[in-house]
Design a protein that fits this description.
Rossmann fold; alpha/beta; 191 residues; globular; seven-stranded mixed sheet
């Protein structure tokens, strides 16, 4: 899928607040976000400006490595498209935790979905539905495909009722399994 198709899908789903795009590459998505006039503030963040980086409209550029402490960096809406698959395992969990930490209202992440193995040398993570549901509990996850490898669009909201219900259901299911195991082995249930 071409990047501009992904950006247009994401822009259609968003509806305001301040936006922080993580892993901006050349800067096209933050530029499109500014042009949309949907956001009160648009910032783009990356470890360093890309060699072909263009800031055509004037969004704010922030130097930030997702695997490090974000400090007071935060936004209502955080987007991170085709980025986290490039983060190696030492640091990957920190990166996902930091994405959640800096998100006030809504986080949109896109990743290649069920990418064929072996992965390209520049991808360190592979995503399927089970892994995405574990990383982003309660998120709406849509799998889309035009050409080539499908990609997943993860729409996560901190503290969502659905997310809390899914986590409670998992916890309850785990407790039931533990009690069944103890009961079938002859151990008395916990009172």
């Amino acid at each position: 899928m071409a990047d501009y198709q992904r950006w247009s899908i994401v822009l259609r789903r968003l509806n305001g607040g301040d936006l922080l795009d993580i892993g901006i590459g050349l800067g096209q998505f933050p530029d499109a976000a500014v042009r949309s006039r949907k956001f009160t503030r648009v910032r783009g963040a990356d470890r360093k400006p890309h060699s072909e980086y263009r800031n055509l409209i004037g969004f704010e550029f922030v130097t930030y490595d997702l695997t490090t402490d974000p400090g007071d960096l935060a936004a209502d809406v955080v987007t991170c498209m085709e980025c986290i698959e490039h983060i190696p395992s030492p640091g990957f969990d920190d990166a996902v935790a930091n994405l959640k930490r800096i998100t006030r209202k809504r986080l949109i992440v896109t990743v290649p979905f069920e990418e064929p193995e072996p992965l390209p040398h520049y991808h360190f993570q592979r995503f399927d539905m089970t892994r995405l549901e574990k990383l982003f509990p309660g998120a709406r996850i849509d799998v889309l495909q035009w050409e080539g490898t499908p990609w997943a669009l993860v729409d996560w909201r901190p503290g969502s009722i659905l997310g809390r219900l899914r986590m409670m259901t998992r916890s309850l299911a785990s407790t039931v399994r533990t009690l069944r195991s103890r009961w079938s082995s002859g151990t008395k249930p916990i009172r």
